[in-house]
Amino acid sequence: MDSALVRRNPEIMSGALCFSGTRVPVKNLFDYLEGSSSLEEFLEDFPTISREQAIAVLEAAHESFAAEMNYLTCCL
């Protein structure tokens, strides 16, 4: 994932992958969406994250997943 979007620092949130420039773990976004919360609720609860940042992370995760699925489909 693009380092402009996310960063991992062992001294911030025990090395969890966080939105760049914040202490908000990316996992929180996925936990919200996996549960019954919306993107709007996530953004309200984490005002340091912009809509653009959240969407960019979701798009990057989607692209990564799609590439992995293509690999598995073609090579297994």
Fold and architecture overview:
With 76 residues, this protein is mainly alpha-helical. It has a single domain, classed as Winged helix-like DNA-binding domain superfamily/Winged helix DNA-binding domain (Arc Repressor Mutant, subunit A). 54% of the residues lie in helices and 5% in strands. Strands 1-2 form a two-stranded antiparallel sheet. The longest helix has 25 residues, at 51-75. It is globular and about 40 Å long. It starts with 5 loop residues before the first strand and ends with a helix. The model has no long low-confidence stretch (mean pLDDT 89).
Fourth CATH level, the homologous superfamily: Winged helix-like DNA-binding domain superfamily/Winged helix DNA-binding domain
What is the count of helical runs? 3
Helix content: 40-55%
N-to-C span: 25 Å
Helical/strand content category: mainly alpha
Q: What integer value in Å does the Rg equal? A: 14 Å
Multimerization status: single chain
**Sheet with most strands: strand arrangement:** 1-2
Average residue-wise pLDDT: 89
Tell me the total number of β-strands: 2
Give the tally of structural domains: 1
What's the CATH topology name?
A: Arc Repressor Mutant, subunit A
Determine the strand fraction and express it as a percent band.
5-15%
* CATH architectural grouping: Orthogonal Bundle
Low-confidence segments, given as residue ranges, are none
Tell me, what's the shape?
globular
Give helix and strand order, one letter per element, not per position: EEHHH
The largest pleated sheet is described as:
2 strands, antiparallel
CATH class: Mainly Alpha
